[in-house]
Write a structure and sequence with these properties.
Distance between the termini: 13 Å
Order of helices and strands: EHEHEE
Strand content: 25-35%
Number of domains: 1
CATH architecture: 2-Layer Sandwich
Shape: globular
CATH topology: Translation Initiation Factor IF3
Number of strands: 4
Strand order of the largest sheet: 1-2-4-3
CATH superfamily: TusA-like domain
Length: 78
């Protein structure tokens, strides 16, 4: 069974070195079919590349809001 409301991961107030580990930890905690929403203050394109390298074929990446002040990305676990 999938969750009805995605987990929101707001990394905007975090220091940079903590952001990616927190995001991957939240993603790894998802069950197959669940989603999370990432809130960031800059374009997370490098994170997408990291997901492609570290979790190939395991995720979906759907931009919801693309700047200029807030990026909201829906990341699903396949």
């Amino acid at each position: 069974m999938t969750q009805s409301t995605p987990v929101v991961v707001d990394v905007r107030p975090m220091i940079p070195r903590e952001k990616h580990p927190a995001i991957f930890s939240a993603f790894d905690g998802l069950a197959s079919g669940e989603k999370m929403v990432l809130l960031n203050d800059h374009n997370p394109a490098p994170l997408n590349y990291q997901f492609q390298f570290e979790r190939p074929g395991q995720f979906t990446w759907t931009p919801v809001t693309e700047g200029p002040e807030e990026w909201r990305i829906e990341i699903g676990k396949i």
